[in-house]
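Consider the following input, taken from an annotated entry for Putative UDP-galactose phosphate transferase (Kordia algicida OT-1).
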Amino acid sequence: MYRHFLKRIIDFILAFIGFILLSPIFIIVLIILMINNQGKPFFFQKRPGKNEKIFKVIKFKTMNDKKGANGELLPDADRLTKAGIFVRKTSLDEIPQLLNVLKGDMSLIGPRPLLPEYLPLYNETQKKRHDVKPGITGWAQVNGRNAISWKKKFEYDVWYVENLSFILDIKIIFKTIIKVVRSEDINTENQATTVKFTGNE
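Applying the prediction step yields:
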């Protein structure tokens, strides 16, 4: 009942309330990033959702588009702006994804939506992470987020899919609040952003 019906209703109600309450912060961050990113405050990217259906995720843009002499984008660490570092550290870059939740592409809680290029790299068990809608936060995020290995993240994602419940989602919400307040596990050790998944060993 919760997985197939109530979860979507609760997602919509909480995302709507959350977006209204956070709208002042949304507007402030929007203005700051417009100034820092040449009028481009948002970042859109295709991601696979439930049943691997592709949708466009929306986040605040925390990196500029500076390119090197060869015309290619500079490494992430070199493009991450000071404002972007703060927005990431406080997880404010996730606020626009409430619009994805309202639209129905995402849930508040679920495995994080990753890059489409990862799809062929998953094993059969890891593919189960796409049996539910992706989330703004999830079981992997409150158990290490970007500070744990890809293998461990996928284990947490699949465990969540197999044990999804209202009580578990409430637990994840409270753990997420604690993580955000403490600014824990934002990045992989010695990395400005998350390292790419290159497949299972």
